[in-house]
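Input (ATP synthase subunit a):
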Amino acid sequence: MMASFFDQFMSPTFLGVPLMALAFVLPWLLFPSPAPRWLNNRLLTLQGWFINRFTSQLLLPINIGGHNWALILASLMIFLISLNMLGLLPYTFTPTTQLSLNMALAVPLWLATVLIGLRNQPTAALGHLLPEGTPVPLIPILIIIETISLFIRPLALGVRLTANLTAGHLLMQLIATAAFVLLPLMPAVAVMTSIVLLLLTILEVAVAMIQAYVFVLLLSLYLQENV
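Output:
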Protein backbone atom coordinates (compact mmCIF):
# COMPACT_ATOMS: atom_id res chain seq x y z
CA MET A 1 0.00 0.00 0.00
CA MET A 2 2.78 2.43 0.87
CA ALA A 3 4.52 1.80 -2.44
CA SER A 4 1.33 2.66 -4.35
CA PHE A 5 1.29 6.15 -2.85
CA PHE A 6 4.49 6.93 -4.75
CA ASP A 7 3.26 5.54 -8.06
CA GLN A 8 1.84 8.95 -8.92
CA PHE A 9 5.41 10.32 -9.12
CA MET A 10 6.54 7.77 -11.71
CA SER A 11 6.94 9.06 -15.24
CA PRO A 12 3.99 7.73 -17.27
CA THR A 13 4.70 5.70 -20.39
CA PHE A 14 2.63 4.69 -23.39
CA LEU A 15 3.82 1.72 -25.42
CA GLY A 16 7.16 2.05 -23.70
CA VAL A 17 7.53 5.73 -24.68
CA PRO A 18 7.83 8.23 -21.76
CA LEU A 19 5.14 10.90 -21.81
CA MET A 20 7.31 13.49 -20.07
CA ALA A 21 7.62 15.48 -23.31
CA LEU A 22 3.82 15.68 -23.59
CA ALA A 23 3.63 17.08 -20.06
CA PHE A 24 6.13 19.77 -21.08
CA VAL A 25 4.35 20.74 -24.31
CA LEU A 26 0.80 20.82 -22.93
CA PRO A 27 1.17 23.99 -20.77
CA TRP A 28 2.31 26.06 -23.74
CA LEU A 29 -0.66 24.91 -25.83
CA LEU A 30 -3.09 26.26 -23.23
CA PHE A 31 -1.87 29.85 -23.52
CA PRO A 32 -3.64 32.00 -26.11
CA SER A 33 -1.65 33.36 -29.01
CA PRO A 34 -1.67 37.13 -29.64
CA ALA A 35 -4.38 38.25 -32.02
CA PRO A 36 -3.77 40.72 -34.90
CA ARG A 37 -6.38 43.11 -33.45
CA TRP A 38 -5.87 46.37 -31.61
CA LEU A 39 -8.21 45.28 -28.83
CA ASN A 40 -7.49 41.90 -27.24
CA ASN A 41 -9.93 39.69 -25.39
CA ARG A 42 -10.11 39.56 -21.62
CA LEU A 43 -7.87 36.51 -21.31
CA LEU A 44 -5.03 38.10 -23.27
CA THR A 45 -5.45 41.35 -21.36
CA LEU A 46 -5.27 39.54 -18.02
CA GLN A 47 -2.26 37.53 -19.15
CA GLY A 48 -0.43 40.64 -20.31
CA TRP A 49 -1.23 42.51 -17.08
CA PHE A 50 0.02 39.61 -14.97
CA ILE A 51 3.29 39.30 -16.91
CA ASN A 52 3.92 43.05 -16.82
CA ARG A 53 3.29 43.31 -13.07
CA PHE A 54 5.37 40.26 -12.27
CA THR A 55 8.29 41.34 -14.45
CA SER A 56 8.31 44.90 -13.12
CA GLN A 57 8.27 43.77 -9.49
CA LEU A 58 10.91 41.11 -10.08
CA LEU A 59 13.36 43.34 -11.94
CA LEU A 60 12.83 46.44 -9.80
CA PRO A 61 15.92 45.93 -7.56
CA ILE A 62 18.12 44.63 -10.41
CA ASN A 63 20.43 46.84 -12.46
CA ILE A 64 19.76 47.59 -16.11
CA GLY A 65 22.22 44.90 -17.19
CA GLY A 66 20.06 42.23 -15.58
CA HIS A 67 16.88 43.27 -17.42
CA ASN A 68 17.93 41.05 -20.32
CA TRP A 69 16.76 38.17 -18.14
CA ALA A 70 13.15 39.42 -18.14
CA LEU A 71 12.01 37.03 -20.87
CA ILE A 72 13.76 34.03 -19.29
CA LEU A 73 12.39 34.68 -15.79
CA ALA A 74 8.84 35.44 -16.96
CA SER A 75 8.76 32.34 -19.20
CA LEU A 76 10.12 30.17 -16.38
CA MET A 77 7.51 31.53 -13.99
CA ILE A 78 4.62 30.79 -16.36
CA PHE A 79 6.05 27.37 -17.18
CA LEU A 80 6.41 26.32 -13.53
CA ILE A 81 2.98 27.64 -12.55
CA SER A 82 1.38 25.76 -15.44
CA LEU A 83 3.12 22.47 -14.60
CA ASN A 84 2.30 22.79 -10.91
CA MET A 85 -1.35 23.66 -11.50
CA LEU A 86 -1.95 21.00 -14.15
CA GLY A 87 -0.46 18.42 -11.79
CA LEU A 88 -3.34 19.02 -9.37
CA LEU A 89 -5.88 17.71 -11.87
CA PRO A 90 -6.96 14.05 -11.62
CA TYR A 91 -5.10 11.48 -13.71
CA THR A 92 -2.29 13.88 -14.50
CA PHE A 93 1.44 13.82 -13.92
CA THR A 94 3.45 16.60 -12.26
CA PRO A 95 6.94 16.81 -13.81
CA THR A 96 8.11 19.26 -11.13
CA THR A 97 7.91 16.52 -8.50
CA GLN A 98 10.98 15.00 -10.17
CA LEU A 99 14.24 16.21 -8.63
CA SER A 100 16.08 15.59 -11.90
CA LEU A 101 13.89 18.09 -13.75
CA ASN A 102 14.16 20.75 -11.05
CA MET A 103 17.92 20.36 -10.88
CA ALA A 104 18.10 20.58 -14.67
CA LEU A 105 16.36 23.95 -14.42
CA ALA A 106 18.21 25.22 -11.34
CA VAL A 107 21.84 24.31 -12.10
CA PRO A 108 22.24 25.94 -15.56
CA LEU A 109 20.44 29.14 -14.54
CA TRP A 110 22.40 29.43 -11.28
CA LEU A 111 25.65 28.73 -13.11
CA ALA A 112 24.79 31.41 -15.67
CA THR A 113 24.37 34.02 -12.92
CA VAL A 114 27.72 33.03 -11.39
CA LEU A 115 29.52 33.18 -14.74
CA ILE A 116 28.00 36.58 -15.50
CA GLY A 117 29.32 37.88 -12.18
CA LEU A 118 32.78 36.45 -12.79
CA ARG A 119 32.87 37.99 -16.27
CA ASN A 120 31.49 41.45 -15.51
CA GLN A 121 32.79 42.09 -11.98
CA PRO A 122 35.19 39.35 -10.89
CA THR A 123 36.42 41.25 -7.83
CA ALA A 124 32.94 41.81 -6.42
CA ALA A 125 31.88 38.24 -7.27
CA LEU A 126 34.85 36.75 -5.44
CA GLY A 127 34.39 39.29 -2.64
CA HIS A 128 31.13 37.57 -1.65
CA LEU A 129 33.22 34.63 -0.44
CA LEU A 130 34.86 36.75 2.27
CA PRO A 131 32.88 39.32 4.31
CA GLU A 132 34.60 42.62 4.97
CA GLY A 133 36.36 42.92 8.32
CA THR A 134 36.86 39.19 8.84
CA PRO A 135 39.61 38.33 11.35
CA VAL A 136 42.69 36.83 9.71
CA PRO A 137 42.50 33.43 11.50
CA LEU A 138 38.92 32.94 10.25
CA ILE A 139 39.61 33.76 6.60
CA PRO A 140 40.28 30.17 5.38
CA ILE A 141 37.29 28.78 7.28
CA LEU A 142 34.89 31.46 6.02
CA ILE A 143 36.05 31.02 2.43
CA ILE A 144 35.32 27.29 2.65
CA ILE A 145 31.91 27.90 4.26
CA GLU A 146 30.88 30.54 1.73
CA THR A 147 32.05 28.36 -1.15
CA ILE A 148 29.97 25.44 0.13
CA SER A 149 26.94 27.69 0.59
CA LEU A 150 27.40 28.98 -2.97
CA PHE A 151 27.36 25.49 -4.45
CA ILE A 152 24.39 24.45 -2.29
CA ARG A 153 22.16 27.12 -3.84
CA PRO A 154 21.04 25.14 -6.91
CA LEU A 155 20.50 22.06 -4.76
CA ALA A 156 18.32 24.10 -2.41
CA LEU A 157 16.30 25.43 -5.37
CA GLY A 158 15.60 21.97 -6.74
CA VAL A 159 14.98 20.23 -3.42
CA ARG A 160 12.65 22.98 -2.15
CA LEU A 161 10.37 22.77 -5.18
CA THR A 162 10.43 18.97 -5.23
CA ALA A 163 9.82 18.53 -1.50
CA ASN A 164 6.93 20.97 -1.26
CA LEU A 165 5.04 19.56 -4.23
CA THR A 166 5.73 15.94 -3.31
CA ALA A 167 4.60 16.44 0.29
CA GLY A 168 1.41 18.15 -0.83
CA HIS A 169 0.51 15.42 -3.32
CA LEU A 170 1.19 12.68 -0.79
CA LEU A 171 -0.92 14.40 1.86
CA MET A 172 -3.81 14.85 -0.55
CA GLN A 173 -3.69 11.20 -1.55
CA LEU A 174 -3.55 10.05 2.08
CA ILE A 175 -6.56 12.17 3.06
CA ALA A 176 -8.51 11.13 -0.05
CA THR A 177 -7.81 7.46 0.72
CA ALA A 178 -8.93 7.94 4.30
CA ALA A 179 -12.18 9.60 3.19
CA PHE A 180 -12.87 6.77 0.73
CA VAL A 181 -12.24 4.08 3.36
CA LEU A 182 -14.29 5.83 6.06
CA LEU A 183 -17.31 6.54 3.85
CA PRO A 184 -19.13 3.18 4.38
CA LEU A 185 -17.99 2.90 8.02
CA MET A 186 -18.38 6.43 9.42
CA PRO A 187 -20.09 8.75 6.93
CA ALA A 188 -19.93 11.80 9.22
CA VAL A 189 -16.17 11.45 9.67
CA ALA A 190 -15.79 10.87 5.93
CA VAL A 191 -17.64 14.12 5.19
CA MET A 192 -15.38 16.03 7.61
CA THR A 193 -12.34 14.42 5.98
CA SER A 194 -13.62 15.48 2.56
CA ILE A 195 -13.95 19.06 3.80
CA VAL A 196 -10.34 18.92 5.01
CA LEU A 197 -9.37 17.57 1.59
CA LEU A 198 -11.12 20.47 -0.11
CA LEU A 199 -9.30 23.00 2.07
CA LEU A 200 -6.01 21.22 1.44
CA THR A 201 -6.63 21.34 -2.30
CA ILE A 202 -7.11 25.10 -2.12
CA LEU A 203 -3.90 25.32 -0.10
CA GLU A 204 -2.07 23.24 -2.70
CA VAL A 205 -3.19 25.60 -5.44
CA ALA A 206 -1.62 28.45 -3.47
CA VAL A 207 1.51 26.39 -2.82
CA ALA A 208 1.83 25.58 -6.53
CA MET A 209 1.87 29.29 -7.40
CA ILE A 210 4.01 30.36 -4.45
CA GLN A 211 6.70 27.73 -5.05
CA ALA A 212 7.01 28.76 -8.70
CA TYR A 213 7.33 32.39 -7.63
CA VAL A 214 9.92 31.54 -4.95
CA PHE A 215 11.99 29.57 -7.46
CA VAL A 216 12.13 32.51 -9.87
CA LEU A 217 12.55 35.06 -7.07
CA LEU A 218 15.64 33.30 -5.69
CA LEU A 219 17.12 33.15 -9.18
CA SER A 220 16.58 36.90 -9.51
CA LEU A 221 18.32 37.44 -6.17
CA TYR A 222 21.29 35.40 -7.36
CA LEU A 223 21.30 37.48 -10.52
CA GLN A 224 21.17 40.70 -8.50
CA GLU A 225 24.32 39.72 -6.64
CA ASN A 226 26.27 39.22 -9.85
CA VAL A 227 25.03 42.09 -12.02
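The CA atoms of residues 25 and 65 lie 31 Å apart.
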